[in-house]
């Protein structure tokens, strides 16, 4: 939920938002046109509201940098009933980073959020903050980067649905257990009432037996008491007896199982009560050590005179301008510290100073590490030449690559068989050193490719000429074996050339996309003209005559 953005929005705009029943989560998803159309806002109001929502989203995105007070303020924005947990969050130092890692067990065991509804609402709001942080991180890093390792929004929604189903099933199980416990409790109460009634009957019988005449005989009285005693010893039910029934049992049976169990429960409760009182009682030694620490800190770090205690004027000056002491406090924190008096106020100031010192040390440490990493990277870069420099140094035997050597290479481009026009040469000379280096590298690579292609064509041409020089055997049937062999070879050759031409065309298209200055080779071997040379024509005529 949001709480600061409402203070920045005009009252008229807020009335329209409340009338439509739109929450802050929906407002963050609406576009400017939807705000104008659905909320009946003017363009100025829509622009202001879009800017406010963008600031609110950026603030929610930076949840990991929230302080403990900002987390408590966020918790209070969820509703008035959540204000009861603010002290618990402050006591456990729950900041923004720790807030995103909270689980249901943490809320129950450590923070005291016993109500299921409150716990589920807090977990839902934490999940919403995680979703905003994930969305911001994904948009900043790009959709393509780490897309295989990151879950999609559909997967997140699917996980949320599965979580809701799992929680609903757990809730159903808990409801079933609660109903069973209620039934068991009702049965126990019924049995306890029955036991109390039986105990009353036994007491009446005992009273009547005491008043009966002795002439009935002692044997009858002992037999009746034996029946009652045997029934009580056989009973396995252990109800929570009231004082009257307990007194009857204790007076009648003395050290019984019920009496021993009751005494054990009483001793356990007294032990827990003493431990609780011991925890709540203040430790004089701990308070003295804490007072010694903050008095020493005030004297050494803040340069306060603490010989006669902490002066109120020093406290007022600290709270009036905490920035002078390199401490950042919000207005709410300052008001909270002003309400405190005596030792709690000094402890709060001491803790604020310690937190500020800790954050400053961490910031300086991170800055120094980043600076050292950058310096090491620059040093490594200076020591090792990049791939382009290595290419020029190995090919042209240079000691280093600089602008002068690149200009000399362009001046002598004909010597390296670089087919560049004057306009291209002038364009290359006006480029920066890094861009000029890259452009010359592309031109050299293109020229090398064309030279390799031309050499390959010449090599195949020579192989073809050698094939024509080899004597052709005549067919035993028709006498046209040589001509058929040549024709078959030419067909295979033309098919191979067509395949190579397609591969070359695909490669040229790829190079053109990467380098706009690429110049395609226009060399075409005149194979048909060579195949019609006098020697070949004479051989072909002899074969035809034969």
TrEMBL record:
At the top level of its lineage, which domain of life is listed? Eukaryota
Sorted alphabetically, which InterPro entries does this protein's record hold?
A: SAM, SAM/pointed_sf, SARM1
The coiled-coil segments of this chain are 164-212, 259-293
Q: SAM domain: which residues?
A: 66-132
Provide a GO biological process annotation: response to axon injury
A single GO cellular-component term on record: cytoplasm
- Asked if the keyword Coiled coil belongs to this entry, the reply reads yes
The UniProt keyword set, sorted, is: Coiled coil, Cytoplasm, Hydrolase, Repeat
Pfam families assigned: SAM_1
Q: Example GO molecular function term?
A: signaling adaptor activity
Where are the annotated segments for Disordered? 524-546
Q: Where in the cell is it found?
A: Cytoplasm
Q: What is this protein called?
A: SAM domain-containing protein
Organism the protein comes from:
Guillardia theta
- Tell me the organism's taxonomic lineage: Eukaryota, Cryptophyceae, Pyrenomonadales, Geminigeraceae, Guillardia
């Amino acid at each position: 939920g949001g709480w600061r953005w409402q203070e920045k929005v005009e009252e008229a705009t807020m009335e329209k938002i409340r009338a439509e029943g739109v929450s802050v989560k929906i407002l963050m998803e609406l576009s400017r046109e939807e705000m104008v159309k659905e909320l009946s806002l003017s363009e100025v109001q829509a622009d202001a509201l879009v800017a406010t929502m963008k600031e609110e989203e950026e603030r929610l995105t930076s949840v990991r940098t929230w302080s403990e007070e900002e987390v408590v303020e966020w918790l209070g924005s969820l509703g008035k009933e959540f204000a009861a947990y603010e002290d618990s969050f402050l006591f456990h130092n729950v900041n923004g980073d720790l807030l995103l890692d909270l689980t249901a067990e943490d809320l129950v065991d450590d923070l005291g959020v016993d109500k299921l509804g409150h716990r589920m609402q807090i977990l839902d709001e934490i999940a919403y903050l995680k979703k905003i942080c994930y969305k911001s991180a994904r948009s900043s890093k790009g959709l393509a980067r780490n897309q295989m390792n990151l879950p999609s929004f559909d997967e997140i929604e699917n996980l949320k649905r599965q979580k809701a189903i799992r929680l609903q099933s757990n809730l159903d199980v808990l409801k079933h257990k609660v109903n069973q416990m209620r039934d068991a409790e009702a049965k126990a109460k019924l049995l306890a009432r029955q036991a109390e009634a039986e105990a009353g009957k036994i007491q009446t019988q005992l009273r009547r037996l005491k008043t009966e005449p002795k002439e009935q005989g002692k044997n009858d009285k002992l037999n009746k008491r034996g029946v009652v005693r045997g029934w009580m010893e056989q009973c396995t039910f252990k109800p929570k007896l009231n004082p009257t029934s307990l007194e009857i049992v204790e007076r009648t049976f003395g050290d019984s199982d019920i009496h021993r169990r009751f005494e054990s429960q009483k001793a356990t409760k007294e032990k827990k009560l003493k431990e609780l009182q011991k925890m709540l009682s203040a430790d004089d030694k701990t308070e003295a050590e804490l007072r010694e620490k903050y008095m020493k800190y005030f004297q050494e770090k803040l340069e306060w005179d603490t010989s006669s205690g902490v002066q109120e004027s020093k406290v007022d000056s600290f709270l009036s301008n905490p920035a002078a002491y390199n401490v950042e406090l919000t207005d709410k924190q300052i008001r909270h510290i002003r309400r405190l008096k005596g030792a709690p106020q000094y402890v709060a100031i001491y803790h604020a100073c310690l937190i500020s010192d800790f954050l400053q040390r961490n910031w300086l440490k991170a800055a120094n590490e980043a600076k050292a990493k950058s310096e090491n990277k620059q040093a490594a870069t200076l020591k090792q030449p990049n791939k382009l420099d290595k290419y020029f140094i190995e090919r042209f035997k240079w000691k280093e690559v600089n602008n002068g050597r690149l200009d000399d290479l362009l001046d002598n481009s004909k010597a390296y068989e670089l087919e560049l026009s004057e306009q291209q040469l002038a364009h290359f000379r006006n480029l920066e050193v890094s861009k000029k280096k890259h452009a010359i590298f592309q031109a050299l690579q293109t020229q090398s490719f064309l030279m390799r292609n031309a050499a390959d064509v010449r090599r195949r041409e020579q192989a073809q000429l050698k094939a024509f020089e080899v004597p052709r055997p005549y067919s035993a049937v028709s006498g046209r074996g040589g001509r058929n062999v040549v024709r078959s070879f030419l067909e295979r050759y033309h098919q191979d050339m067509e395949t190579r031409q397609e591969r070359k065309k695909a490669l040229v298209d790829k190079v053109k996309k990467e380098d706009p200055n690429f110049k395609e080779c226009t060399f075409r071997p005149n194979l048909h003209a060579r195949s019609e040379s006098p020697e070949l024509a004479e051989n072909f005529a002899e074969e035809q005559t034969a």
